[in-house]
Each structure stands twice: as C-alpha cells, then as structure tokens.
Amino acid sequence: MKSSILYVTMVLSGLIALFACVTVEPQAEVNIDATVEARVAKEISETQPTSTPEVIATVVPNPEPTPTPKPTPEPTPISESTPSSEEILSRANRTMNAIESMRYKVDMGMSMGAFDIPMTYEGEFHTPDNLRQTLSMNMMGLNIESDLMQVDGVFYEREFMEDDWYESYSFEGVDPREFWTGTESFLNFPIAVDPTIEDLYGVEVYKISWDIGQELGSSAERVLSILDFGDEDMPEAMVLEYWVDANSFHLRKLSIEMEMGDIEATEGEATEEEIMAMMLLGGGEIMGITMDFELFDFDQVDQIEAPSVAAPSPTETPAPTATPAPTATPLPSPTPAPTGASVDQGIIYVGDTVGANLASMADTHYWNFEGIPGQRIFIEAADAAYGKVDPYIELFGPDEQNLLAENDDGPMAEVAWPRNALIDFEIIEAGIHSLVVRSHPYPWGEISGDYELSIYPVKDLGVLEIGTPVSENLSPAEKHYWHFDAVAGQIISIKAEADMDTRDTLDTYIELHGPSQHGSNDMLQANDDDWPDNVSYPTDSFLSIEILETASYTVMVSPAGHGVGSVSSQGAYLLSVQELSE
Q: Does residue 374 sit in the same domain as residue 516?
C-alpha cells in the first residue's frame, strides 16, 4: 500500500510545478494625491456642527419564547445479543470481500505546522478490479480536479483543465479495498473494545472506536505496516473508528486519525518521503494525518467501461527539398551500447532473501542457485522502494540458454505488492540455474530502486479432511500447502500450533486461499498470532471464516516472516481444520 505521506507529497510536487507557471497579474497603481484629498475632505466634514436629530420612539418587539433545548441523543448501550467487535469485523470482512460493486468517498488530510492539505476522492468500483474516481483539491484558493480510471488492467487519467483521456502507466488514485482485503486488512484485528449501536444516515450501525495508542504488540505493528510506517515512525496518538451496518454487515464508514511527532530535519535522520514533505511544505512537523472512508450503493453500480482515448496529434509532413548532389557514402557508425550495466550478483541459496539495487531500467542482474530435481520453489522479486521499481524475472536452466519461466506481476494471492514478480516452478534438471532480474520494460522508463530477491522451498502436501488434524515439519522459509473441500454456509476454523518441542523455534503463519469475487484462488484471510483468544501459545495462528461458495480451499503454512534471519524459523507443527457450530 502506498505511504500516505509519500502519496500526498507526490501530488503536491505536481501542483507546485503548476503554480510556478501561473502568471500573477500586477496590482493597479494607487493615486496618492487623490487619496490625501479625500482624507482632508472627510476630516473637515467631521468638524462641522450637525443639527440634533428628532427623537423617534423605538418600538420594542415582543420577546419570543426561548425554545426548549433538545437532549443530545446518547448511543444505544450494548446488549447481551450484540456481537463482539471481533465478530462484527470478521463478518464485515466476509461481506466486503464478496461485494460486486460500490460507490465511495475518501477524505484525506495532512497538516504540517499551520499548513493543511485536504484531498477528496469520489469514485466507483466494480469487479474484477475496475475503478473510476475524481480527485478534488483546494490549494491556495484554486480548486483542482483530475479524473482517474482503471479498467481491465489498463490505466487512464484526465488531467486538470483537460478534456481528453490518456493512457497512463499506473493508477495513481486510492483503491479503498486495499484497507480491508489481502493479508493486511483493517477488518482482521482482534479488537476487544465493546461496540455501540448508533444511527448513521438513517441506517442502524455498530460503531467501534479503537485507540491504538493504548495497544501494544503485533496488532499495533500491523496497523503501522498497512500504512507503511516503520517502528521508528510510531504516531503519538492514533484512533480507528468503524461503522458497520447492523443488518447487512457492510462497512459503511471507516475513520483513521493520527497525531505524529516531530520529523528530524536532517537528511541523515529523515526518510526520503519526510524530506520531500519538508521541501514542499516547509518546517519540520507533521502534526496529523486523517482518512475518512464513506461507502455506499453496494452492488448497485453498473460495469465501468474504458473511456475514449485521445489520439496523438498528427505530425506535419515536411515540404520536399531538392535532391543534393551525391556524395561519398560514409562508413557506418557503430551502434552505441546500452547505458545499463550487466552485474553478476553471485549465489543465492534456496531459503534466502537478498537485496540489490537496479540503478536504471537498462541494468540487468544475474543470480545463480543450485537446483535439486523434484524440488518446488517460489522465486519472488519484490519492490523494496515503495513503487519506484517494477521487478521482472527470468529463470534459465543449467545450459543458460533454455528459458524455463518468466514473470512480471505475480498472482495477488501470493504477493504483497501487485507489481512484485513471482515464479512457481518445479526443478527438473540438477545443476546451477540462473536468474535474471531487471526493471519492467517500456512504458515505465528509466526507473531505478531497491528490490529483494527470495527463493522459498514449497511443498504441496495434498488433501486433508475437516476434523482430522495433520502434522508436518517446516524448514526455514518453507511454504506448505494443504487442500480441503468445504460447503457454502459452513463456518470453518483453522489453527496451526507449534509442537511442544519446537515452540521456541517456530512461529507459525497461515493463509486461506479460495474463490472470491476477485478470482478463483484469492487470499481470503491470514493470521500470525491469535493469542490468547483461540490458541494456547503466543506464536500460534488461528482464523475462522464462513464459507460462501462450495469449492476446494487451500491453507498455506509457513514460518512467520518466512523465517529469514530469525531463530523462529523451523520446527514441527499441528494443523487442524474444524467446522464450528452456529
């Protein structure tokens, strides 16, 4: 997900460039002599005596009765039949992941010193991933609007004061679904506060207010991770508020409010986005960030169609010129070599994650690893620069000539960022295999940045029966896949517990994959630690979900954080899939 600070400052940089081009009209010249004469005449008139005006009786109106103040409505207290906050959010998670379409309004704001930056996105969503929205912003008295669309994987934009649509290389708007889908979801938190029942625009809703400043542990870390904040960027205060429809369990409104601490103004201590914010806004304090989401018209929006794109202007045909006298044919000049570098990065081992930097789109990095026949692996090249690089990977066999696989954007069920590349491959031939990593070709242009390359061992362990636990042993960074069949309407729980002897060396992480509105193998839920609610040890994992479609489902089990560089990276575990009663 994009960093809120970074995205707002990126928009502002374009706006400041726009203001630099605006011509300021000169003020009209003031006639000083005329101004002085007018002031003298006014003083003379004030010194002249004036006649006493006739006294006119004042009519006193009858006093109106003071209206009786209406009492402020109080939130309805929670009753025994009201579900818990965790259950409300769990049901909202399932409902929001199943919607086909909706409309939304997102109000975002950032204050820095005395400077406020308000932005509003209003738009529509329709499956599978189509979006249409308008960005509105008022800056220094100028109302600015631009339109953005994403249709069938193609991006469009209509810039400020333009009538025509043009294709773009990315969607630079806000996709509100990112806040409640995927591994990092605001609807996946085990919130223990009690909900209240309120009226929101004539709809009865459950309201949940969660002050994260009072929380510690993995839940607080996950919120910061969703918003792209590191531990060092911990807000001084942060409040999440949810309004969930009490009947349909649609998420009607979500509010996020943060108060930030001082940002260090020195380049050595501030991050890149913080430095950008200070350059654009001045000063060194980001006082607060707010995001308010309002969601409505669920499953009532027609399919979003691509706009008509303006054709490029034709170039003028030059007039023919006289044919010059023939001259000697010059020798051909050699074609210049590309400016990028080909770099041999050396060895990467299965189970490892390594980092490197692509200095430009023309750079090519080569990595080698030992392949074992029959071994299934995931090879992932992940953007580590927050949208600055779009990794592209190729896999070659031991002969270094046979292209075995390639990928640009991995499946959403397996990658955390849609531009990350992922290859799922079973090794056929023993020997050294080669990986080529580069930035995605045109239209991305000269894009550079850091990336992380990982190779995960993968095991497909077959089918398990609901109600029958299974056990297995995880190696460092390994991913295990188990499959089971479920029927629509079942409520299923999934638990992964480290064996008694490996609790000090294994922290389990689980994901459930299955059919949804977004695809046949979407990531439906995930969990790292669910202690103390449903597991007996702090590093064990648990999730529960209502099955919406009769189909085959997949559970992925791995060490938390893939176990790279962590002592909690391996060991035996017990996996159980159970059917819960209503």
A: no
